[in-house]
Amino acid sequence: MMNTHYTDFLTPENCAVALIDYQPAMFFGVQSHDRMLIMHNALVVGKTAKLFAIPTVLSTVAKDSFSGPLVSEIADLFPQQEIIDRTAINAWKDSNFRKAVEATGRKNIVLAGLWTEACVLFPTLELLKAGYHVYFTTDACGDVSVEAHERSVQRMIQAGATPITALQFLFELQQDWARSETYNGVMDILRADSPYGVQVNFSHWALSKG
């Protein structure tokens, strides 16, 4: 019997987003991917959440004692949003983070953060045990090595979480280019944070010549 969790689409009405530990000290340790690529993909996730009005939880770890603040590129997307700072590596162990996720009322959690092997993996396992469906954006996560990232991704899949990419999340919510209320916002995200932005700009230029 097919598990509909793996075939149902994410929608603006059925999911929430958690962005975890996008902080300077965490970025410094990333060796698995190009750091700017991770930043752009994290921005795709954040901008998508904002565009489609998806409840979003922001969290940092040891902001004042070690890791620094949430990077301004992400924080500025949600100027009125509380950023939950923790001492626990595992965000789910922090009562404020847990309450914020529960307050969204959503059972599908789209999660991204640094590093994959701890700050993403640990809350993913906890969320799964608590009855949530977790969709983790692999290309918006990173770790100290390719091995660390890949083994963590493998473990999350084995546990029942679903890997997605940042642009997959964006396109899954848009679904139809005739969805005019978010069309321009999607184009803005593609232009700013994806290689496809070059094609978007070219297409606009070429069509203007007609």
Explain briefly what this protein structure is.
The chain is of the alpha/beta class and 210 residues long. 50% of the residues lie in helices and 14% in strands. The longest helix is centred in the N-terminal third of the chain and has 17 residues, at 35-51.
Polypeptide structure, described:
The chain has 10 helices and 6 strands, in the order E-H-H-E-H-H-E-H-E-H-E-H-E-H-H-H. The longest helix has 17 residues, at 35-51. It is 50% helix and 14% strand. The chain has helices at 24-28, 35-51, 63-67, 72-75, 95-104, 116-129, 146-159, 166-174, 180-193, 196-208, and strands at 15-20, 56-61, 83-86, 108-113, 133-137, 162-164. Helix 2 (35-51) runs antiparallel to helix 9, helix 6 (116-129) runs parallel beside helix 7 (146-159) and helix 9 crosses helix 10 (196-208). It starts with 14 loop residues before the first strand and ends with a helix. With 210 residues, it is α/β, with parallel strands linked by helices.
Layout of strands and helices, then pairs:
Blueprint: E1 15-20, H1 24-28, H2 35-51, E2 56-61, H3 63-67, H4 72-75, E3 83-86, H5 95-104, E4 108-113, H6 116-129, E5 133-137, H7 146-159, E6 162-164, H8 166-174, H9 180-193, H10 196-208
Parallel strand pairs: 1-2, 1-4, 2-3, 4-5, 5-6
Helix pairs in contact: 2-8, 2-9, 6-7, 9-10
